Amino acid sequence: MSAHAEVLKDSRAATAFNVDRIREDFPILREKVHGKPLVYLDNAATSQKPKAVIDSLVDYYTHYNANVHRAVHLLSTRATAACDDSREKVRRFINAGSTNEIVFVRGTTEGLNLVAQTHGRQNIGPGDEVLISGLEHHSNIVPWQILCEEKQARLRVVHIDDRGVVPLDEFEKALHERTRLVAISHVSNALGTVNPLADMIKMAHRWNAPVVVDGAQAAPHMHVDVRALDADFYAFSGHKLFGPTGIGVLYGKEALFNAMPPFQGGGDMIRSVTFEKTTYNDLPYKFEAGTPDIAGIIGIGAAIDYVNDVGMDAIAAYEQELLEYATDAVSQLEGVRIIGTAPNKASVISFVVDNAHPHDVGTVLDREGIAVRTGHHCAQPVMDRFGIAATTRASLAFYNTREEVDALIDGIRRVQEFFS
Amino acid sequence: MSDLNDLYQETIIDHSKRPRNKGEVEQATHSAEGYNPLCGDRVQVQLKIENGHILGIGFRGAGCAISTASASLMTEAMKGKTPEEVEIAFRKFRDLLTEDQAPAPDLGKLAVFSGVREYPMRVKCATLAWHTLRAALRGDPQAVSTE
Questions:
Q1: Residues A307, A48, A67, A287: what is their CA dihedral angle, to the nearest 10 degrees?
Q2: E strands within A278-365?
């Protein structure tokens, strides 16, 4: 081993983050793709699952599969207790004040739609405004467009600058007495920009506008404290947080949740039903009609346990270091341009390669075993802002390594051999 | 495992870098726009048809190597053809991309796309220009979508 490598190894050991050991927890990382070791750099689309999460699903289905809140038998009691435990884990994970404020949904998208269809429909009228940013992806644009169209309200956009930053002064100027709601992502999925959320929320609250946060890309990468942020609603997905697909969380302040009408009708969300009149259940069940995704709820709890064991501070520090390493390496490639150069970023490097379309880049990288996302990342307005149709996006997680970043760089060179 | 060179054959790389018939067709009689929502690629195909034959054909738009080369080679191959001949060629081309059999012998240069079969996610890239050409011939100027 060279002296340089020794130093590198030492400096990494100093961060007390043993990525080799962590990788052993993720069975999929041993897979081969086209005969090459999998290099999974598509974590912003979905993350891989540690064995603890996979085991929690198998354990539920093998040993205590039963419906919740309905029966007196032992299995139902165990399943109900497991779901209650998970809700408490989620509460602590985002530092909510009460489990009444934690509603399980299918994912971030459903959480945002829930707010639009309940709080939004109740509080937004003709001439009112919903404010979003130019960074948003489709699931934090379209629900508000639907709402605004229905209510003859206006959807206002604060555009991003050349770095992919939402200018705070522009954001502040866009707020006024008709702003009834602000919907903004914590971290951009397409560019990785981290928004100064606490400041934005303070500004919005000066106009009494509640703020809905799309936290899908933040929850896996940084501490989220909904009370410190003073967020009114905060939505995120289990599957991007090393948990299963089909489960997500919508946090909402209890007073807001209480004032909102139900989202969907059905079992679990009622207290009593007659043909004349139904009374609704207490929070959080009011917003959870029907049998929930029990396995998913248990799985997201296991994922949070896993992340807590590794430690979110250690994860954030390691990922920042890796992001810097990757950013430096990609920047040094001639003919490659990084899209999104905000000073505060998390996990994502979006880039374009001269003379090579992202689709072709993705295909060549795939043959090298490297999984990246190519396309518009469900954020076409962001692409339009930069005058491009698509990018290639490498998105990192704490199980990725410098060696994998090096493989990406070699892959991009291979792309360039092909197309330039 | 198929090699990348089977997908990106020399002719494809050549046509993607120097696309033929790219640009406006003068006195075009037919036109349509195609869209691939998967990647956001757009292509416009313009035609000048006289006496039932395609006298002029051109395309505009940005896309990946496969979609650009496909548009370029398609415009070369379909010049002078009738709408019926376009339809027959399209079916053979589509079969080339999706069916596990020897390519039709009269596909000519279009046979270079045989490697696409191994990349199901890329079939839409190769057919975008063709769907757009067929929409133009139907007199349907609305954007066609490959979805």
A1: 70
A2: 278-280, 336-339, 348-353
* Residue A420: closest C-alpha in chain B: B17
Is A83 catalytic? The answer is no
Q: What is the DSSP letter of B112?
A: G
- CATH fold of the domain at A13-42+311-419: Aspartate Aminotransferase, domain 1 (3.90.1150)
Give the closest-approach CA distance of B25 to chain A in angstroms: 24
CA neighbor of A210 nearest in space, from A243, A249, A237, A179 = A179
For the stretch B61-118, pLDDT in tens is 878 999 999 999 999 999 999 999 999 999 999 999 998 888 778 889 999 999 999 8
Residue in chain A nearest B61 by alpha carbon = A389
Q: Please, which residues bridge with residue B96 across strands?
A: none
What's the alpha-carbon Rg for chain B, to the nearest Å? 14
Q: Is B105 on the interface with A (CB under 8 A)?
A: no
The answer to whether B39 contacts A390, with C-beta atoms less than 8 Å apart, is yes
Tell whether B13 is within 8 A of chain A (Cβ): yes
Partner A contacted by B143 (CB < 8 A): no
Q: CATH 3.40.640.10 in chain A: give the residue spans.
A: 53-309
Q: Give CA separation, A228 vs A86, A144, A198, A231, A280, in Å.
A: 22, 26, 8, 8, 31
**In chain A, what residues touch B16 (CB-CB under 8 Å)?**
419
Say whether residue A371 is in contact with chain B using an 8 A CB cutoff: no
Fold of the B4-138 domain: Sufe protein. Chain: A (3.90.1010)
- Contact (Cβ atoms closer than 8 angstroms) between residue A183 and residue A140: yes
From B129, B122, B74, select the one nearest B98 (Cα to Cα): B122
CA-to-CA distance for A40 and B121, rounded, in angstroms? Answer: 18
- The pLDDT tens digits for B8-55 are 999 999 999 999 999 999 999 999 999 887 777 889 999 999 999 999
Q: Is B65 on the interface with A (CB under 8 A)?
A: yes
The H-or-E segment that residue A271 falls in is: strand A270-273
A358 touches chain B (CB under 8 A): yes
Q: Which residues of A touch B122 (CB under 8 A)?
A: 359, 363
ipTM comes to 0.87
Contacts of B7 in chain A (CB under 8 A): 363
Instruction: State the amino acid at position B11 in one-letter form.
Output: T
- B contacts of A374 (beta carbons < 8 Å): 39
Which of A34, A359, A367 minimises the CB distance to B39? A359
**Residue B7, helix vs strand vs coil:** helix
| Fold (topology level) of A53-309 | Aspartate Aminotransferase; domain 2 (3.40.640)
